[in-house]
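hey so i finally got around to running the thing on that chain from the lab meeting. sorry it took forever, my laptop kept dying and i had to restart like 3 times. anyway pasting the input first so we r on the same page abt which one it is
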Amino acid sequence: MIFCTAAFPSEVISVILITIIVMIVSAIVYIILSKRTKRRNAEEFAALKKRMDSEYKSWSTSVVLNNGLKSITSNICLLGDERCFYSDEAILYEPRSVRNSTHLGGGVRVAKGVMIGGGNSWSEYHDEWRALSSGILYITNKRIIFDGEMHDRTIKLSALTVVQAKIQELSISSSTRQKTMVFSGINARIAQDTIRLLQKASARQK
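ok and heres what got predicted. didnt touch it at all, straight out
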């Protein structure tokens, strides 16, 4: 396709050229910044994983040297022969149902959620993970206890059905709660293995 530049004033051509140059430069800057951000995120993740692995190795060594888990002091009320073996600051996440409403047609909205006139409307629900509370996560030989600023959680070890660790996130499901809980900001492998060792010890005592 051939354009006749004589049909456009020189000022218009200059504006078009400048716009194209700005767009090209902006795209190059965006690509460079995106690559730097990805590289920085990868470096931060690698450093975090290295630190988590080092902490886990030190913890594993201490378990071997002590011939098992060593109980610690805590600020929670323990029951009978219950002892605490783990505590760390954590953030509690749980899924929450969110509704998205859609309305098509010529109706008139007269109040929140109230429409008058024709049209169709429907709602869709989906779960979103929400941070509910920060607090302290405790693991005892009987229970998992979350002492939070806004919410508390208590789960018996015997009721656990799923325990999964991912770097700094411990995912827990139990037979007594419908929704999965995630405790973030901790060394999840240490917490997971603490639970497993305590479950094995409890099974041997039965």
